[in-house]
Amino acid sequence: MPSQKNADDRIALLQGTLDLLILKTLVQGSCHGQGVARSIQRQSEEVFFVDHGSLYLALQRLEDKKWISAKWGVSENNRKARFYSLTPKGREQLVQKASEWQRLTRAMGLILGSSEGLPGEGA
Domains, the chain, ranges and CATH? Predict the structure, then answer.
């Protein structure tokens, strides 16, 4: 089990980032909100912490856009919960948004990978 990280070590998620992470999580199958949050936290090695208020607003926004669907079911704790699933439209968005993020992270890597201008480098 990974060690518990200090709250200061966690990184706040931007709105579009959270949407993408939710869509990616739901590729694995239907899941309730708490399960989505735990999956994101676990897969990020405890770096990303999903605030429940932000999570449920994002789930509602994605449902309104028809990127995910929801239905009531019973959780592993035998509690009533909404289970979210990726729709075909959501799958298309996942492909598009993931491609955009890959371009962005590649560009950031190119800039940050350069030692030029880093403190303590050269003179």
Answer: 7-112 (1.10.10.10)
